[in-house]
Queue: 3 jobs
Job 1
Amino acid sequence: MRLYGSLTSPYVRKVRVVLLAKDIPCELVVCDPHDQHGIVPRYNPLGKVPVLELDEGSTLFDSPVIVEYLDSLKGPTLVPVSGESRWRVLRWQALSDGILDAVVSRLLESRRPAERQSPEAMALQERKVAQALDFAEKVDKGEAFLANDRLTLADLAFAVALGYTDFRYAHDWRTSHPQLAAWFNGMSKHAWFIETRPPNA
């Protein structure tokens, strides 16, 4: 298999940490998703990463789809197959992706020419991040793992979301969210987190 993506994309990083956590071999092909003549648009009509090329030549895209496929290849599963625990894990993934979407939107707005930037648009995305972190701090969870008594996609996805927040929207969220800070400190020590850090993070 080949995974196409950039080293700074948090959606690509989510797939990479799943590959490492499940010990699934996969070649990483670093590419520019914004290159209209590059490989990404050939495999994904939306021109977005990550894209996973399977051994038989077909492709999958969008990180939730790729993650579910990878989870089906090898146990133990990162997403429970049924029951309340499954929906808890998927809710954490949705919350994580929402944080990523907000941080990415804020980043893109901040890169516009100063005279064309919208402080209101940036403030909206910052509120989304703050509200998501407040929810995560207060919702029922374990100390070591978020949604179960073992490592699941909830932990991998949310660790990536917090890591990307530190990378692209650095601010002191830890003081007001001590439970998340303690949990994230533990997650940050795993090899799958360390090995997938974006350059200059």
Job 2
Amino acid sequence: MNEKQKQVRDLEEIGRIRLSNNFFFRDFLHSEIATVFGLINVPDDVGQAVEAGKRLCEELLEPLHATFGKVCIRSGYRSREVNALGHRMRLGCASNSFNYAGHIWDARDTNGRMGATATIVIPWLVDRLNDGVNWQAMAWWVHDHLPYSYMCFYPKLAAFNLQWREEPERRILSWAHPKGVLTAPDMPDENNGPRSIYRDFPPLKSSQHPSGI
């Protein structure tokens, strides 16, 4: 077996790792940057990446899947090399130091916290954007129901970064209108938006995890 064949086999094995009931590691490995520039998007520390990815999937993505249906992954895990190139080429990637315990799942942040981020699209929300449902409603729903650390919303398809992290920060930003900070720990309680904004959203549904996950 030559080196290229071994790399394929290794990636196949990593991709088969089940992170939760509905998500496998392969769901998070695709990268347009890696594809175009010929890079291999693979963790240096598979064990830490899997541990962080499981927490992201089990605590955040599975409840969203159970409540709203399909969750589409736009961007998931990034290797240091892939993320650094994306940042250098201005392809929508923040710096590696910012993305440690973010999109770079196999590195802890400067405070020693483990974490993982995925950029997701929820078709349930996309289908309702023309009916007046906005990204703020989803932001507040997640804020009130799930143990996220950070969210950042984008203009297209109401896509957003969703992060699980040890010692969560509970911060929401947006590049979609209106841009800026929706809520953060240092903001007064009165800045927390009216909960009636998501009154037509379904209630949180529990997700079931098969034995061994």
Job 3
Amino acid sequence: MPFEAKPRLLIIGGPTGAGKSAIAAEAARLLDGEIVSADSVQLYRHCDIGSAKPDAAMRRAVPHHLIDVAEPDQPFTLADFRAAAADAIDGIVARGKTPIVCGGTGLYIKALLEGLHGGAQSDPALREELLRMPLPQLYARLQTLHPARAAALHPNDRHRILRGVENALLPKNAAPPAPAAYDFVFFIIAAPRGIIYRRIEERVDAMLARGLVEETKALLARYPADCKPLMSVGYRQAAMYLRGGLDAEALANEIKKATRHYAKRQITWFSAVRGGIWINADAPITGGAAAFIADYFKH
């Protein structure tokens, strides 16, 4: 049987505010690449400002995949991401381009590389039944089926409560799919924590100035308040503001605080990646971080 080389894959991860998106776009230019987004909110349509999607100019300059692929109230599992990302990578390789996975949702990257499948099998009839169930009743069901999981969730977090009930009721897949066969290099973009926090403050101020509240209001007019993207950092706080639970100053402060906590969790997650190559995006690097990554990847 002839030997088949594994597709080469460049991965660029890191916490919010580290600058990975710009570095990935420049690396794509240098490597004639296309980017596969590993961001759990950018995949939803109409969630533009709050997810910090690449702007139109960047997406014209560098093809991006797995952005705007699902409606905000559409379920999108780890298995969905893994399948969609693998398809995108296959297409990029077939075009003779370099696939670059970039994002801060570490579990998505892990699913792609290690074959995670997201737990229980799907059952559309059961999901429809659970979606019709009042949230207090659904939460009580989870408390009965899985008390520890219920205790770890907010009683208003319908998305995770629903998944918890599904995972408790449905049969698990007998075995995960075989891991994707990629020859990958994993770069983790970092910066001193103080710099990341400063960038987070600037990013939140910019999002609010661009219309995060207005975007959230438009989303709430079309989709349930407990759909997955509206429960994410930024949208969740903006929804509270619209309900009168926060004033303008508290809104900005709460988003910044929640984003800092999220960045800490991301740093912890990426710190456990074996073989990850850390780059301090603020350290002097001859030619810049993207040039260093591209040169390393080519050799």
